[in-house]
Amino acid sequence: MQRFNHTAFINSRRDERGLGHHTLRAYSQDLRTFSRFTKANGLTDPLSKEDILAYHRHLRDELDAKPATIERRLVTLKSYFAWRAERNSALPSPFTDVRITVKIPRRLPRPIDRDTLKLVLRANGGAIDALLSPGADHAVPDAQNAVTVLIIKLLIVTGLRISELTNLKVRNVSSDGSQILVQGKGSKERIVFVPNRELQEEFQRFCKERSDTGSIASPLFLNTVGRRLRAATFRKRLRALSERLGVEPHLTPHRFRHSAATLLIEEGIDIRMVQALLGHANLKTTEIYVRVSNTALRRALERADILSTLKH
After folding, report:
1. I need a surface site. Which of 20, 68, 147, 289 has the fewest CB within 10 A?
2. Residue 257 annotated in active site
3. What is the DSSP string of the chain?
């Protein structure tokens, strides 16, 4: 397909919209998939409505892509063609008259139940030991064990995305360990709070040690060789902890995020406050946790106890 160069589009999304690395990588994957389709079918500009419908069938029937993947690929492609049409009126978007509905099954998040969270916290750092040989991230020393559990506690009380947490610098934490300046999706900044006093003190001591051994511009969390802890490395540690404790399905950073939201909703925290904590742009994204949790409803009904009030 002639003139299909998505590099400029990706660069504009990064520079003009401030989109994050993961979003830009997904855009690139989506556009490369379409580029392969156009080459395989000998398609050239201008593309037609039928070409887009054929691509939809290709994703659905030949690639057997999941509905959410199909929707994302089509949304990315539509954005690309709209962007291109703005810059070259001779290349109109083939999506102008296209109406494609992709039904996506609503998947409920899977938070970690309270008993499992208690089990993980009782591990107290000693549960993750000798995972690999020294030098790799297998033999995590005691100091790293404690850091792993500290991160778990922070995920539970803040609901941070693991990428937000692993990208933190020492300077992003307040001097008393009670506040964290987080850069979320689209480079949007927000403040999250560490409400537990004991955790604040533990976090404060950790941050002071990191400041003393490095600088305020250093990564907050390091791996066993002194470099920034990567999300993939932390996921490996959680999987090892899951195996050690017999937790199924295994622990993941995002399940801790789900747990943070669900626990707050269950304790009666206003949904808009939960939205602000999680950094959700749309309240609908947060509302799913209301449907997940029936605990708050049960407690409210037990407090009301309408039948008892009618007896008196």
Report:
1. 68
2. yes
3. -TT---HHHHHHHHHHH---HHHHHHHHHHHHHHHHHHHHTT--SSP-HHHHHHHHHIIIIIS---HHHHHHHHHHHHHHHHHHHHH-TTS--TTTT---------PPP-PPPHHHHHHHHHTTTTTS---S-BTBBSS--HHHHHHHHHHHHHHHHH---HHHHHT-BGGGB-TTSSEEEEE-GGG-EEEEE---HHHHHHHHHHHHHHHHHS-TTSBSSB-TTSSBPPHHHHHHHHHHHHHHHT-SSPP-HHHHHHHHHHHHHHTT--HHHHHHHHT-SSHHHHHHHHHH--HHHHHHHHHH-HHHHHH-
